Amino acid sequence: YHVLLSYKIPNRMSNLKEICSGLPLDPLPLNRGRDPNVPHAPIRTPNLTAEEERLALRNALRYFPPSHHATLASEFAQELRQYGHIYMYRFCPTLHLRAYPIDQYPCRTRQAASIMLMIMNNLDPAVAQFPQELVTYGGNGQVFSNWAQYWLVMHYLSEMTEEQTLVMYSGHPMGLFPSLPSSPRAIITNGMVIPNYSSRDQYEKMFALGVSMYGQMTAGSYCYIGPQGIVHGTMLTVLNAGRRYLGSDDLSGRVFVTSGLGGMSGAQAKAAVIAGCIGVIAEVDEAPLRKRHEQGWLMEVTSSMEHCIKRIREAKSSKTPLSLGYHGNIVDLWEKLLQEFERTGDLLVDLGSDQTSLHNPYNGGYYPVQLSFRQANQLMSTDHNRFKTVVQESLRRHIKAINKLSDAGMFFWDYGNAFLLEAQRAGAEVEKAGGGATEFRYPSYVQHIMGDIFSLGFGPFRWVCTSGDAQDLAVTDDIAATVLGDISANATDRIRQQYNDNIRWIREAGKHKMAPVVISRDHHDVSGTDSPFRETSNVYDGSAFCADMAVQNFVGDAFRGATWVALHNGGGVGWGEVMNGGFGLLLDGSEEAAKRASLMLNWDVSNGVARRCWSGNSHAYETIQRTMEEHRQLRVTMPFPVEDEHVLDRALQG
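Structure tokens predicted for urocanate hydratase (654 residues):
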């Protein structure tokens, strides 16, 4: 795809120059504390020893000259004890953070400006879940660990030349290092912890100490673009779920029930309407519910269970697409739907899933049905062990209702948020008889819905119109749709359907006032992520728990032309459960950019298709075979299948 980048609007160079001038130290900015008008992250509970608290404070102060230590030490210590982390609220910028057009950033290279634009977008209060805690989405997906890191990164990027690379260690800018013009301008790693120490408890301590960070998938890599970034994949999931479970492309009058309206889960409402069905999404936190409604993502909101059921019946009867936000607990909603079925025999739900942040179940990612939102937040910080027990009780109730509705004919899938994994750990009935290590009673959406798409080489890429001009965005949409249409003309029926779905997405996104334009993708993709309970849950050769693909993806993108690359521990399913890599690639219309895009994007997809082919996936085998015919320099080791299972039987019995 080509992206237009140079559209000018009145600039704010003076304000952006201030942001790029380094840490404000003379004088120190006023300490305004936390802004009561924006949502804030739950209080963290790292359980530091006295010596660890001392170390956390020492680590935070090393960003500042000793002349400021007496002033800052006491307030940092208070933040640590009150909120469980040193965010450095004093240094939260007063400038409204948002994605200003690329030409407004005071930089020596446009590549650096593109990174700055994406960072600013990730921290925009209209985008970020908890902006003052530098959390973009998922409850704990950090852009940086503290505000000192933000100021230093913006300064480094403004000074960078095309012979330097910014090196990022879990939010911390290690500095600018000499490199080549063809090298990435930023190399990012988040949470690279020695495997035996990659536990949740260890993470809480390391984050509090300021030495590691959970970047989710696209928060710490600066590639998040709001829920719109996942609407594409969510729409494809819902469409393909209808094809697989309901046997139809027509989802009118069909009801999809799920939960979560946060940074990623917020996409579900818009995706349901684009797919043509009735989406009912429960959310316990009023702030994201209100935000999605004000943004036009939710058509209706109600806190009345009776009204919710009434609207489901009406929309189902009229077959009118609807996105309905229920302000309440998802467990209550599932139990009410079960009660309605048992009372009337009407199954009011066809498709079901869940997008609570269960990668982070005991620190605000999941709110138990027994407690109000406020009560849960209080118990979370005052009696963590009791809160964990209550969460597990809620998960067992959650699954019990889903199981009964599933027995009645509803089709449920896990959305890769560790829902079934944590339910299993809580003792809920989710076991699959005779299932493997990555299988549960219900499939993950990768196993049954999206897995074949990945094997065919399709995934959720996005492009960001860095001019900020809607007309430029429309041009890129038309280019992309035209190119996809030309390619699909010579594709097989199965592959043509996927191209058509993507063309539909581009056309519908415009109608629904989506605003997607630097090229990137979700780390959740063909090659970017090794996640045995999500992206690689349909890999059955024993390698689902191996992470070579994600690491190779990160390294391969770096020397094939990416503007920046990132490698993360965690993301989606949670810390210690996943390895994922991503990239950003600036396209400026030059021949050099075209060469980079062709080389890097072909690798970025072929890497994962080749791995899936080697694992035994027949669709991936066909895809990589066809790709080798098109690209003669590509040579992939192809597997030979065992055609006679008796050969194995005889060998093992002998």
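Residues 384-407 form the longest helix (24 residues).
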